[in-house]
Fold this protein.
Amino acid sequence: MVSTPPRVAEKSGRQYLHASGINPELRSPNQELLPLTAKVNSADRLEIGGCDVVTLVQQYGSPLYIVDEATLRTACRQYRQAFEEYYPGKTLVLYASKAWNCLAICAIAASEGLGIDVVTGCELYTALCANVSPEKIYFHGNNKSETELKLAVGSGCTIVVDNWLELETLAAIAEYSSHPVRIMLRLTPGIECHTHEYIRTGHLDSKFGFDPEQVDQVFAFVRQQPSLNCIGLHAHIGSQIFELNPHQDLAGVLVEWLEKAAEYGLPVSELNVGGGLGIRYTEADDPPSISEWVKVVSQAIAAACQSRGVHLPKLLCEPGRSLIGSSCITAYTVGAKKEIPGIRTYVSVDGGMSDNPRPITYQSVYRAAIANRMSAEHTETITIAGKHCESGDILIKDAQLPKLETGDILIVMATGAYNCSMASNYNRQPRPAAVLVCQGEANLILQRETYDDLIQHDRLPERLTIPQV
């Protein structure tokens, strides 16, 4: 059966730009498809951070991650300033670095007064190498190794304890520490959000955290461990969330547990509500602003404490996607084209699932534009295919774009979260470079891998060596 491609509206890449005349610092980055500094220059080419995207590709190659420093810093400041406005107690915003962990991104977040949330030993090591204070590093993870726990204890960071094995292992390690080890306890709140099944974490059927019926037993155990200093409780209800009501429910649960911890004599003074605020990937997405999210969370915790007569705790949150997601675009070079009359037109680019695994993994939807012809009308419906040997390696299905030519520079929007961090070497594809752009200056923050990089850890047994003829 031959399908009819949808009718293409006569629009151009300019439709994705923000409204002119609005102060970029007043716009919530998570509600934008492009970075706040995006504009079209006189050559009809896209600029990010004052840098021409086509020129960047010519200089650094493609695929290329392009990170706008101004957008990332604006998001950091909006979180911090919103908490100062809406929460009457102490606060700390943590960057959930699993979204994208590298030296430069951690350093920017730290310079804006944020702490760093890490989930592996190497993420912790990266944050430390970026000179992030251990006092502001919180170490998550549901299966930390003994080696990772020893690194965490030695660094002086706070460890978010996830399960019994970790708690018992950490208690044994902490006995040899010169000071009590700061911990938080991750608890499963039983709150379910309407989001992708694979990224729901708050409902009871989750691999993360202690279940509610274990709370008393956990508190009793921790009370008997003088080497552990339980400073807080943590819960998380999901990712890419547009709803605000679940966070109000979470506040009640957390404050109830806060009261119970006090009954056991635990010095709990911090509550971490997790993150999860969504971003705009398409025109149809309408996430709350950073300020709206912070207001709901802050008022919910404050109201729950007031209703129970509990002193305000230090309030923590850990956004990732809503800080970095909209700060980045990925630039590709257009290659081969395949037209199947009456069915579909495929256009391939020089990247794909190795630099953005989210479409094939989560069926995630993105928007694209042609950086070298931003005003060209959208006259075709095109499926953007990756270069990998997988039929499912499709970046965008049925994208509305101008007629593409080999050599065009195609950009995909909002690729800062879980693109670089989940990138792979599938088909032995080198992972892309990343550049940080700001006020017309571009700095390399991740070097492109080479073929030699990809084989440097390979080992060829002598008996397999093929003699040269």
Observations:
- Confidence is low (pLDDT under 50) at residues 1-5.
